Amino acid sequence: MFGNNSNVRQQVKREFIWEGHMEAIEKASREGNFAVSFRAAGGPTLKALSKGAAAKGHDILEKTIKPGSIRKAYFGDEASDVIDKVRKESIEGYVGHWDKESGHLQGMYMSSRHGFSGGLINGNIYPIDLNNLETSLSSLKGKENWAALPFTGDYDMHDMISFTTQPHSVPSASLEEMKIINHINQRIAQCDSNRPFDDIEHNVIRHGPQVNYPAFAMDKEREEVRKRGGIVKAVAEPGEFPVAIVSKGEWTIANDIYELEKFYNRVGAKMKVSWRPGAGNPGFVSNTEKPGMVRFSRKT
């Protein structure tokens, strides 16, 4: 685990948080007396956020336009060609609309303030043609501050710990959770003119931390959980690592679950039982009929 030195700050701004937002998040965590951790956003998303792009919530499930997602949809030289095209036209990092059959990139998700009338936008998807990309983007790029109109990823929180009273993990969907989310978004709104607090789509924190996802899903999405055959394994379990933690203004990197547990122990908070490494972890049971889904092995 690495503490608040210049190397840590460099890693945070390179992988986790746009540097223009770091001070605001630090300030919020000092004022609100809390710690939150973040999963890596990645360079393409951070670049789009730096331009003011909207941040997607849970309602948009498609993948960001970046080399990894492009290489899953295209192969060999074609993938390299698509990567070059989207970089040249500065649309890397936005959320793509991918054809369900071919997997090919067909559009980008737009925030509701896109300002287009008529039939160009289908739902909230701006159509793009990779064979004529510059021309297909001309209407979008004709808009003032166009780079702030499409969606990119948000900042995905992993943990949330409050130091008011005894140090504790903040309960799912609680007033305390919402207060911390609002505090961060308000401080960012003060330093980033593209992100007024009342413009929900441009808030960079769109939902609670991953640690609260199972409780949230079982409480607020019970019927969906039943239909899906459980909850999403990748989000129910801790990770992906590393995560960047800001605690009362200081940054730390936890490279694995053991380092994260050390952080919890250091600040006097208890990690959720199902996330604790080692013996006694009840964890989750895979649903053999639904790959990627898990059920609780017992109540956590």
Brief summary of the model shown:
This protein is 36% helix and 16% strand.
Describe the SSE topology.
Elements: H1 6-16, H2 19-31, E1 34-39, H3 43-50, E2 54-55, H4 67-73, H5 76-88, E3 96-98, E4 105-109, E5 125-127, H6 133-136, H7 138-141, E6 151-152, E7 157-162, E8 168-169, H8 175-191, H9 213-220, H10 222-228, E9 231-232, H11 233-236, E10 243-247, E11 250-254, H12 257-267, E12 284-286, E13 293-296
Parallel strand pairs: 2-6
Antiparallel strand pairs: 1-7, 1-10, 3-4, 4-5, 7-8, 9-13, 10-11, 12-13
Helix pairs in contact: 2-8, 4-5, 9-10
Could you characterize the architecture of this molecule?
This is Insecticial toxin. The chain has twelve helices and 13 strands. With 300 residues, it is of the alpha+beta class. It has two domains: 178 residues, Alpha-Beta Plaits (2-Layer Sandwich), CATH 3.30.70.1720; 102 residues, no CATH class. The relative contact order is 0.16.
